[in-house]
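Weekly puzzle thread! Below is a chain. First person to post its structure in token form gets bragging rights.
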Amino acid sequence: MAQNVFDQASRFAAKLDPPGFLAWLLGTPAEGIAFRGWLDTRSVPFPADDDRTGDTVASLEDPATHGTPWAVAVEFQTEPDPLMFGRLLGYLSALWLAAKPDAERGSRFHVGAAVVNLTGAGTASRHMEWPATGLATRLAVVERNPEREPAEPLLDEIEAGRRSRCLLPWVPLMAGADAAGVADRWKRLAGAEPDRRRRSEYAGLALVFAEAAARADFWAEQLKEWNMTESKVVNAWIAQGEAKGRATGLVEGEAKGRVEGRAEMLLDLLADKFGAVPPDLEARVRATTAEDRLRAWAGAAARAGSLAEFRQQAGL
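Winning reply:
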């Protein structure tokens, strides 16, 4: 499934219930934040992604400090970006300069960032310090890595009413999400949602995220009787992913065919020049999936005067 589909699905899922999602993302009870809306940050492009509309910058207030205004940029990554620290540093700087919580002179947001890595674990935070000079730069980013978080505790919290049902779509990304018991609990909790379209969105998004976590077949089987006709936008993402998968399969099939063909040609060449190919060498050639390596080995075979010389030149 195309990466932009995962990005779009993540943004859609975050907006199903923004306070509920943001409370989980930031690791605080629902009453620990006050959500004031999503900021219009279209004039603040994200570094290296200038054509993207910044529509997931949350305007929050801290109730513990009598409403300190925060602008929190929320980012989603299919895989961690090693340059995310620098990109966030640049974005938060531009955000601090461009966005204001009100029209008062000198009014500024506190700024921060949170990242959801759909797979893998990110390292966007940095603390750089040179004590002898007094220089220091620090960026503390909240990162959620669902693949390293167990699914069961989140389901427990949703069942107890401490977390929003809007978090159900993220469960297929989490550790243990391919257990039948987890899927059964998921269906029971999602089925308690009174809004029919919202139930459909939960299931559709779950299938999108299951694709990112390589659990598409398992969750498709678990949700095969679930009604997902109500959510046209989510179904469009699923269809796009399936089309992408078919195209990728064709390309991968062609590439595999080329590799297998080169392996056969190399083995034929070796047999013609040097006689029977030893079993260990044949196994090495057939196990090789790099087309450029097989091409190089064919050149070595053409130049070699003996099988031993070929092995030496090819490193076999």
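Puzzle host: Confirmed. Bonus trivia for everyone else. The beta strands are 34-38, 57-62, 68-77, 110-117, 126-130, 135-139, 142-144.
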